[in-house]
Each structure stands twice: as C-alpha cells, then as structure tokens.
Amino acid sequence: MLRIFPALVSIFCLAPLIFGVAGVLLPALGAGPATGSLHPVSGPFRLLLAEPGLGKSVLLTLLTGAGAPVLSLALSLLVVTFTRGSRWWAWIRRVLPPVLALPHVAFAIGFAFLISPSGWLVRLVSPILTGWSRPPDWQIVQDPFGLTLTLALAFKETPFLILMCMAALSQIDVDRQLRLGRSFGYPPHRVWEKLLIPQLYPLIRLPFFAAMAYSLSVVDMALLLGPNRPPTLAVQVFHWFQEPELALMPRAAAGALLLLGLTLGLMGLWTAGERLFSPLMKSHQTNGRRGRPSHFFSGLARVSVPTGFGVTLLVFAGLLLWSIAVRWRFPAAFPARMALSNWTSELPFALRPMGFSLAMAALVSFVAVCLVIGSLEHQNRTQKALPLTLIALPILLPQLPMVFGIQVAALRAGLSGTLALVMWGHLLFVFPYTWLCLNGNYLAFDQRYITAGLSMGRSPLACFLRIKLPMLLRPVLFSWAVGFSVSIAQFLPTRMLGGGRIPTITTEAVAIGSGVDRRLAAVYALIQLTLPALAYATALIVPRLKRGTP
Predict the structure, then answer these.
(1) Which domains does the chain have, with CATH numbers?
(2) Residues with Cβ < 8 Å from 460, sequence gap 6 or more?
(3) Where is the ABC transmembrane type-1 domain (predicted)?
(4) Contact at 8 Å (CB) between 250 and 34?
(5) Which is nearest to 249 in space by CA: 238, 240, 236?
(6) Report field, pTM of the whole predicted structure over 0.70
C-alpha cells in the first residue's frame, strides 16, 4: 500500500516539471502551433534580443536576484553568530513565527505605505523635523535601480534563513565546540567564523538557493515595489505572456528560458565561487589568529533583530490604519477620521476570492501532508528515500518558466483555466515546503512506540492512528500550516494557470495594490495576512486541546 506514495509524488509533484520544461523549451525554439513549425528556429530569440531595454531588465534582475539573498544570508549568519545562546535568541524564537506568517504581497503593500515619499515614516517626522507640507518628489517605491525591491526581499528572506539556521544547528554540537574553541583562547565570534559557520553553511545552501531562485523570478512583489521602465525580466516576461496575440508567445517563452538560464548560471557561479574560496577559508581557519571581540558586528546583529521586527510591526500598523482611514491628508501622522466603512463596503466583494483561497489552501496543504507522511512512512520501512534535491527542485528553479511551460502544455491539453489545474500548480510548490518542515521530526520518531503497540496485538494502521499520529500532531499541523500559507501566497500559478478566471485574495491584492487606493489595498493585504495567521493559530491550539483527550 505504501509503495504507491513515491509514485504519487512523482506523478503529482515532479512530472509537471517535465511538462514545464518542454512547454517553455519548444515555443522558445520556435517549434509549436504559435509558429506553425515543428522544427526549431531562431526567430523567438531574435525577437527577444531586439526588445528595447532587455539588457537593463537582465541587469536589474541580476542585481535584485543576487543582492537580496546574499544580504539575507549575511544578516542571518550575523544574527546567529552573535545572538545564539543569549536572551536575544529566545526572543527571536518567539517572534519568528508571526514574522514568517506575513505574506510577501501583504508585506510589500505595507512596506510601500511605510517608505514612500508620502508614507508613514515621512508623516511621523513632518512637518516638525522636515518642514514639508507636501510629499517630496522622490522615487523611492519602484526606483529605477530596484533598491526598494532588494531591501523588501531581504526583509522577507532573512527570517526564513534564520529559521533554516535554527533547524540546521540541531545537527551540530554547538555548545561543546564553543567551549572547546574558547579553551584555546578564541572569542566566541572567532569560533563561529572558523569552526561553526563552515559546518552550518552546507546545511543551509539549499534554502539559500531557493531564496535566490525566488528573488530572480519574483513577480508579485516586483509589480508592487520594483522598477517599471524597464521592469525586471520576470515582470517583463509576465507582461508578454498576458498579450492576447498567440504569435508573440514564442518571445515570452524565449524570455522565460533566458530567466531559467540566468538562475542556473548564477547558482553555478556561486558554486564555483565556493570552490575558489574554499582554500582561502581553510587557510583562515588554521592561521591561529584569535582576534579581539567584535563589538561592532555584535551591536549590528543586536540592532538588526529589533529593527526587522519593528519594521514588520510598523507595516502591520500602517495597513491597519489605512484600512480604517476615511480621510488622511499629508502630513498628518494619523488619520483625521476613521471608520469601518472600507471593510463593510468591500468585504462582500472579497468573500468569493476568500472562499477560493481558503478551499484551495486547505485541500492542497492536506493532500501535500498526506503525500509527505505516506512517502516518509515508506522510507521508514524500506530505507529508500526520494532524493532531497529532486523534492526541492520546484523551489530551486525559477517559478515563472516552470508555470509558463505548464500553461503551454495545459493549453494543448485543453485544461487551461480549470480549478483542478490551479490546485495542481499550487501542490507543485506546496509539497517541498511541507516535506522540509515534517521530514526531520517524522524520521526522528522513536519506532519503539510502534513496536510496543504491535506487540500488544494492534495492527500497523491502528498503531499509526492511535500512537504515532497523535505524538507527531504538532509538527504535522505546523507543516500543514506552512503549506496553507504557501498556497495562499501563490500568485503566478493562480494567475497564469487559472487564466484570470479564478480569483484569490493574493491575485486581488496584487491588482488593487498596483493602483492608487491605499485604503482598499490595505483591506485586501490584511485579509491575506489573516488567512495564514488562522492556519498557524490552528496548528498551535489544536495540540493543546488534544492534551486532555484520552
């Protein structure tokens, strides 16, 4: 019975990648119905290279796609090095889940409200400190260099990498190695630098590459915060795909293939850099230099943690204020008049996308958790595991080319715009996250409990349902909540595979957030924030209710 689960994973979660690659490769080579040819031609790439502003789009993509994950990696390692073992570390553990629960689109909308020239930060100091009675003419949001987009991506990816560091540190005996290093006269940060980070980094390389792939191909945050003349390559390809003329699809496919090549090339360059840097790192590890305590980096780490949490709180508070604001003129720090009219007028229209979002997220995350449990149970009994790189492939490759290819294949099969296809697209990206969340706890379960149950005459299924599942309820529900939040946040699979026919809170939030009505955008951003928060609350509350259950 359990043998079917690896096959189901291959069919539902890995086979679409093959269709995705084929669906983007054939049109990019000019072979397919859009060109009327079954043989590869170079026309699509000529169209692509002739596109004005392509070089700048590629450069912006590389700057934001490499800058954000590298900055996030540096900050996460800095925070781990200088706060692990202190009171800050326990505080980070407590505040990390709500920070991670904030969806990217909701954060982008709130971040734009916060830092724009007429945003809340400027309002709080105007006109007392600035003398401004009207907003300055600064291009902060959608700046031409993509700095705001890079900063926002770094804000969202740093907590994720810190969480991955926390999980990886459980595989390293940190305390013993710190004591050993200090006994040789090394300050703690030197022990981390020379001994612990070289062990930690290989364990978080996969999440780092996932963050890099996301940054390179992000569309929703780039539509809200990124430059638009020209936009990043992912946004440009997305716009090309929206054009109704079928003859222009090969150009979009060529752009998607270029984005895939940029992602793989950047990862390859990073890997080559690791190999070149390795001898230098080994020399640094063994040079015997102790150094002095680094007060600057220690202070930077301790400042960055409350700063990141403070920005998240300000984003949430700004969204809340704008959602109830009736009149809020610049430079007033707070609305002159507040009411719930924005909510009461818009909530009836939001019920349909909320229903689609909740139903799809709950069902897709449930299916993903079932597939993960079945596959891990099969692995426990046969000692045959699916390769981790294969499982993580959907989040290691840029999302846009994959979704584009699946859409092309779906068009050929007549499945485009169906709810089943959208849910399948969600499952493709939800499954890797649920696997990563549940894998460690599930495999660490002490099988002697099951052996004891079997010895009492219980069936394997009864032992699983009455012993194993209740004991693993908390991590199972947490992985379900993570999958739920990932599904809620999906923009590209919903928009492209659904053909615009299946509205969700995320697609509506992006559409409204790109406009000028801040109050309406805040309402949808808060709704989008609330849905995953409810899932995480369920994951926390249900295990506590089950404690007293016999």
Answers:
(1) 1-32+340-550 (1.10.3720.10)
(2) 450, 454
(3) 54-270, 352-535
(4) yes
(5) 240
(6) yes
